[in-house]
Amino acid sequence: MKLYLGIDVGSVSINLVALNYQGQVIETIYKRTQGQPIKKIQSGLRELIEKIPGEKEILGVGTTGSGRHLANVIVGADSVKNEITAHAVAASSLVPNVQTVLEIGGQDSKIILIRQGIVHDFAMNTVCAAGTGSFLDQQASRLGIPIEKFGDLALQAKTSVRIAGRCSVFAESDMIHKQQMGHSLEDIIRGLCDALVRNYLNNVGKGKEILAPVVFQGGVAANAGIRDAFARILGLEICIPEHYSVMGALGAALLARREIAKTGKTRFKGLELMENHYSASSFECKGCSNICEVIKINQDQRTIACWGDRCGKWSEQQQTAVNI
Question: Percentage of residues in the chain with pLDDT exceeding 70?
């Protein structure tokens, strides 16, 4: 089977997607990073390949996410693109006329405006947890409710209790106050969902023209309460794509497929990379007053990549050595 792979390395999780030759999703993997991105890339790739029966040929690989450059060093990617590009490509492939992409993950969130098939504008929130999935996790834990049941309980609410959602700390104290006033659990949960959506729209979506079709993706899209809150507050139908939780990896795989269509040759290092030993280290370069922290990635005691230097002294030198 001929495959294209997409790898999305984020701060919380690593997602992998395998596409067949026609560009259809045939397998996906979700793994928590747990502070070990290199090991998780290797083990995730191994699991992905083992889940697909028969002989496999990897035609191309794409990486995205905050750890895309690290993943590129490990696997040898044909396409290395940021999250905005990857999510926009994935959304456009599943909903051809999409104009707005709402994406909420565990630690960050983003909005992407697409006009005539091209990214027109975007914004990201990586500073505060109040507009992300971790906000819901914290409040679900506080209420003693499994996060999987959070959304369904929100749909059972008779009214929405207004809860301060600008800050996760304030939201928690406000939630406790509402409990003490006697509001039902379902109404409080719906209020928390509304608070997250208001926070998202007032920060990430501030000043943005949100037009239909609207695609909602990322892990939080699984939450029925958040989906309902977006639909009510925006007054628009919200589309949840089939592979909403791995859209970054899907976009990376599609971008790799496009690249291979142009080059005809992959840079993928081969499945044996799953058995290689990689390690990371750092040092301070004292070559100038910048005193940059340079990251080194080693494979079996050999340095294969460096980054973090502003002037390129180490990264360019290492890239030249690798090319030779």
Answer: 94
